[in-house]
Amino acid sequence: MTDAPNGRVLLNFENNVATMTLNDPSVLNPFGVKLRKDIDWAMEKIEASDARCLTITGAGRAFSSGANLNDKDAPPRDRAAEARGEVKSSLETWYNPFFLRLRDLKMPILTAINGIAAGVGMSLALAGDIRIAARSASFLQAFARIGLVPDGGSSYTLPRLIGLARAMEMSMLAERLPAEKALEWGLINRVVDDAEFPAAVREMGQRLADGPMSLALIRKMYWASPDNTYEQQLALEAKLQTSAGMSEDHTEGVTAFREKRRTNFKGR
C-alpha cells in the first residue's frame, strides 16, 4: 500500500489488481483539492502499470460524500468571471477530464461502495463497469439540496441505468436510496452483507484481473453504444472483434476449450 503525496489516496497493486482508496475518512472522503491532486498521482501510476483491473473504494464508513464544501485548500472562486467565460470552472479543469480519463482506461473498473456515495461521489460510484455495494451503503443525488445540478456525468449515466423517471426523482427530490433499492432499480450489480463485503470485492477484482484483454474492448464497446446507431454499433463490433480475435488470450481461450481445462489469460 502506497500513500499519495497528500495522504488522501491509498494505492495498492496486488495480483494485477490496482486498488485506489479515497482516504479522508474523518470527513467522509470528499473531493477536495488535495484529494484531486492525489487522484491524478494515482491515475498516472495506474495507467503506467501492468494492472488489469482498477478497484475504487473509500476508507472508513463512506465511499465519498461528494465535493468538499469546506475545503480550506480551495482557491477563491470568481463566479462572475466564470459566468462570463473568462475562467474555467473546476468541472472543466479537473472533474470532466478525470471522468473521461476513467472512461478511456484500458482495464475494467470495479467500484466498491462501502457507505454513502453522494453528489459527485455517486458519480464516481457509477463510473464502475461493475458496481458492488455493502448492504449498509446508500446513494444520494445531493446536488439539489444545495441548489446545484448533477455533474460528474451522472445526468448521462443515471437515466440510462434506471430510466428517466427515476433519474428525475433521485435528482429533484434528493432522497437517499438504500443499496437494496439501488439493486432493484438496476443502479448497481450486487449487494453484499457488510461482513462479507471486503472478501467479495477482492474476489470480483481478481476475477476481472484474470480475464482476457477483451474486457477492455467490451467496456469500450458499451460506452459507445448509447450514442451509436445500430449500424455504427455493428461496425464497432466488427472492428473490436478483429482486435480480440488477434489476441493471445483468444488463442488461449480456444485452446483451453478444446483441451477441457481452465483458461490462463495474460491480458494480451
How does this structure look, described?
There is one protein chain. The chain is α/β, with parallel strands linked by helices and 268 residues long. The protein folds into 2 domains: 208 residues, 2-enoyl-CoA Hydratase, Chain A, domain 1, CATH 3.90.226; 46 residues, Lyase 2-enoyl-coa Hydratase, Chain  A, domain 2. Helices cover 44% and strands 16% of the residues. The chain contains 11 helices and 11 strands. The strands form 2 sheets. A 7-stranded mixed β-sheet has the order 1-2-3-4-6-8-11, with helices on both faces. Strand 3, helix 1 and strand 4 form a beta-alpha-beta unit. Helix 9 packs antiparallel against helix 10. The longest helix has 16 residues. The relative contact order is 0.11. The mean pLDDT is 94.
Highest-level CATH class of the largest domain? Alpha Beta
Q: Can you tell me the number of structural domains?
A: 2
How would you classify the helix and strand content by structural class?
alpha/beta
Radius of gyration: 19 Å
Number of helices: 11
CATH hierarchy: architecture of the largest domain: Alpha-Beta Complex
Largest sheet: 7 strands, mixed
Strand order of the largest sheet: 1-2-3-4-6-8-11
CATH level-four homologous superfamily name of the largest domain:
2-enoyl-CoA Hydratase, Chain A, domain 1
In helices, the fraction of residues equals 40-55%
Distance between the termini: 26 Å
The beta-strand count equals 11
What pattern of helices and strands is seen along the backbone? EEEHEEHHEEHEEHHEHEHHHH
* pLDDT averaged over residues: 94
Q: Fill in the CATH topology of the largest domain.
A: 2-enoyl-CoA Hydratase, Chain A, domain 1
Strand content: 15-25%
- Uncertain segments of ≥5 residues (pLDDT<50)? none
